[in-house]
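job 3f2a | input accepted
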Amino acid sequence: MSGRAKNLPAEQRRAVTVESVVKLAGTQNPSEITTAAIAKHMHVTEGALFRHFPNKEAIWQSVMEWVAERLLDRIDRSVIGVESVLDALQAMFMTHITFVAEHPGVPRMMFGELQRAESTPAKRMVQTLVQHYRQRLQLQIEKGKASGELAPSVDSEAAATLFIGTIQGLVMQALLLGDVAHLRQAAPGVFAIYRRGIEQTAGLPGSRNPATRQRVSRVKKERP
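job 3f2a | predicted structure (224 res):
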């Protein structure tokens, strides 16, 4: 690895640096990751790093850009061809959980950046990611309300916030327990509770889809 790292083109060098930071953040406090530690992990000198990044903040910004690009891309691909909004939301939920399980250092870095008092490029990138994520969720929720799959009374903004907050809660528990595998085990049951809170039930147990609600509506109309 060290031989290849020393001869990588600039773009690949930056990509390897970002991946190294993500790996390091999975095993230690991101705030304690120094450029010296990154360089050591990559088997290069600090000088080599700074030929591609002006400072540590630039590295952190690139890491957050990497996270945003890959997470949103996975989420977008997870709903392709999924007609049911509830199934699409579940796909998004589980895709996010899988991403975190694969990269446990990512939430550590995101939480760390959001806790910083000052506005940094990396912090702004995290805020932009959350904003774009929330917009995708709200579009799905509004679509579900229009189709009758979700309850018309659902507040799309609140539902999107709860969706993200639920994942954050699961992630925090997993980090506290030191058990990332707990994420995948708990996620389906947790999403099932979220799903029941937003889906349209037509006042009857099991009325979870438009076809069922149409039958319920027809029965009501036919009653004397």
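job 3f2a | The mean pLDDT is 86.
job 3f2a | closed
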